[in-house]
Specification:
By secondary structure, the protein is of the alpha/beta class. It folds into two domains: about 80 residues, no CATH class; about 290 residues, TIM Barrel, CATH 3.20.20. Strands 3-4-5-6-7-8-9-10 form an eight-stranded parallel β-barrel, surrounded by six helices. A two-stranded antiparallel ribbon has the order 1-2. β7, α9 and β8 form a beta-alpha-beta unit. The radius of gyration is 22 Å and the shape is globular.
């Protein structure tokens, strides 16, 4: 079932319809709902505004919709847009490091993370799992997610391999095979998480790294994304970027150009852009994070943040403690939670995922966050 937003405009005697469907399982007021309705609003405005053509008497010769009605429609849409920035609680994503010996225990019928799992909106699968896990393990994982109404995301590179460049992170060519395997084993793919395309395809200055133009990068990423879309027509794309890595002063302008070029090439906008923050970098991350969030919200793009520990943490307790410090620092700085919160690790820690009652388990961090989120927000607001 879907909620259908629809506008009908009469132009030159012809009824023209603009509509967008919003999935019924989207939380009303949540970031996904906001993005879909904002997309409809932009489409409607793009249709209405160019058709205004007034003669000296104030009459519109090209449309049977009179100016007062047209003005009211435009005012209603424009007045509605600021409301879209007022989101509800963040969406919780979970992506534990794939090497943990407890990984598959998450998907047992009585897995001891029932409360934490109830907060999780999306479970993100690593490329390693979809490529190397057995059919039996993946089918079990997908069935558990379906049963618990947790959406599936697949992380992967969207930069197609190019001759003459290094095959770095962010570059993959097996998207069609991934999509086919997910479908065959019962997975319902809702999202693809693009592995830092702007950085690995355009911004990195590592010798041999890709140095594509923004337009070429966006076109290639759209081709890769369509390999998933052919199998899962409603799949949405999110983009991760390492904001601490960029050294060119115009990197945020490049991001805006990439988002616009990808939208044009793919036919849909990014569902969110998420910050991968090097919390430990000597250069302060706070000014960049603030500027990044402000810029994305200014163009109506949902913002996500990967909440993790530090890469050199030597124990589960140290990693989890730093992750808590990091998300507290971000939300205190910004004054609110991001639209998406991604609890993710690709380093050796935390090795323990379960049980959620253990202070040294990754799932416990989700409980800590949910119990403290309102307190953090209230403290930042004072």
């Amino acid at each position: 079932m879907v909620i259908l937003f629809q506008g009908i405009i009469r132009t030159n005697g012809l009824r023209r319809k603009r509509s967008v469907s919003v999935e019924a399982n989207l939380e009303i007021g949540g970031p996904r709902f906001q993005a879909r309705v904002l997309e409809w609003s932009r489409s409607l405005l793009a249709f209405v505004l160019p058709t205004i053509n007034l003669n000296p008497n104030g009459e519109n010769r090209t449309s049977q919709m009179r100016l007062p009605l047209r003005s009211s429609l435009i005012a209603a849409v424009i007045g509605f847009l600021p409301c879209m920035a007022k989101g509800g609680p963040p969406e919780i994503w979970f992506s534990p490091q794939s090497g943990s010996v407890e990984y598959m225990k998450l998907f047992e019928p009585d897995a001891p993370w029932q409360q934490a799992a109830s907060y999780v909106k999306v479970f993100q699968l690593t490329p390693r799992r979809i490529r190397t896990d057995s059919d039996a393990d993946l089918a079990k994982l997908f069935a558990w997610l379906n049963e618990h109404h947790i959406e599936l995301a697949q992380s992967t590179g969207l930069i197609p391999p190019h001759p003459g460049f290094k095959h770095t992170e962010g570059v993959d060519g097996d998207q069609a095979a991934m999509a086919a395997r997910i479908q065959r084993l019962g997975g319902r793919l809702a999202y693809v998480a693009a592995d830092e395309p702007l950085w690995f395809g355009h911004g990195s200055h590592i010798p041999g790294a890709y140095q594509l133009s923004v337009a070429e990068l966006a076109e290639g990423a759209a081709v890769s994304a369509r390999a998933f879309q052919k199998v899962f027509p409603d799949v949405r794309i999110v983009e991760d970027e390492p904001i601490s890595n960029f050294t060119d002063p115009g990197w945020m302008d490049d991001l805006g150009q990439f988002l616009a070029a990808f939208r044009k090439a793919y036919g849909q906008p990014m569902a969110a852009v998420r910050m991968d923050i090097a919390w430990w970098f000597p250069e302060p991350w706070k000014p960049r994070a603030l500027a990044f969030a402000k810029y994305l919200h200014g163009i109506g793009e949902p913002v996500g943040v990967i909440y993790d520990g530090n890469s050199k943490d030597s124990s589960d307790a140290e990693w989890l403690g730093n992750a808590q410090k990091n998300y507290t620092a971000y939300e205190t700085l910004v004054g609110s939670a991001p639209d998406e919160v991604i609890f993710q690790s690709w380093v050796p820690h935390p090795t323990h995922l379960l049980p959620e009652s253990s202070s040294e388990a990754f799932t416990h961090l989700i409980l800590q966050y949910e119990s403290g989120r309102q307190v953090i927000g209230a403290g930042a607001a004072r």
